Amino acid sequence: MIMTTNRKHQQQEIGKQRILNNFFTVLLLIGASASAKAQVRNELSDRKWLIEFGGAVGLFTPFQQAKEDKILIGTSSLTAIQFNYKKQFFGRLQVGETRIGFKNKTSYGTVNSDINVAASNLNVGAFVGYHYGLGNWQPFVILGAGPSLIGVPVTSFEPETNTVQYKTDTRTYLHATGGIGVNYSLSRSIMLLLECQATSLPGLPKEPSTHLEGISALINVKISL
Q1: Buried b (16+ CB within 10 A) or exposed e, 75-105
Q2: CA-CA distance, 60 to 121, in Å (whole number)?
Q3: Phi, psi (degrees; rounded to nearest 5) at 38
Q4: What is the pLDDT of residue 18?
Q5: Both ends of the chain: CA-CA distance in Å?
Q6: How far is CA 225 from CA 8, 45, 53, 154, in A?
Q7: What angle do CA 208, 214, 218 make, to 5 degrees?
Q8: Confidence check: pLDDT of 208 > 70
Q9: 45-104 residue pLDDT tens
């Protein structure tokens, strides 16, 4: 009888020990899983590189306005992919287009030519920048350069046929662009961007003036990839 009671007691103790072991094993597994998830979240939030993609539209105002006409205002648009490094530094590749009114008057003896159309340029640029986080706000500065493809309407005169010919003269120039702006985080993956860019074309002939050097005010939406 005593031996039977001792066996039951030993079996009960063994059962309790197994329950405790299983309980602590479950706790360890839960803790390890939570730690792994936290580590993944930290790695995602603290990773060195972050890629963003976005597009922008806005208004363009040239540095030099036409003296005899109303204030010229054009349009700007761009598409960009941005590579952020350590939340402060970033590089950007962007393709943008600017369109604005173009006027040119030319006289060929008794024949007058009056062009009133739109000039445009296609800018491709590589940029570097720095932004600083202030909560959901991120003010930034940016500087870059690249080729600019410009199409300018031109005229020529054929005296034998007394004909004025019109065509588009397309050439490539170098542009230099600097800008300031601010990002606002709408969520972890979507940001609203307000940016002002100033573009200069040092080699662009002044006559005929195309008014494609100026300031663009842009609004952009970026998505983190």
Answers
A1: ebbbebebebeeeeebebebebebebbbbbe
A2: 12
A3: -65, -40
A4: 59
A5: 73
A6: 63, 13, 7, 44
A7: 140
A8: no
A9: 556 778 899 889 999 998 877 666 677 788 999 999 999 888 789 999 999 999 887 777
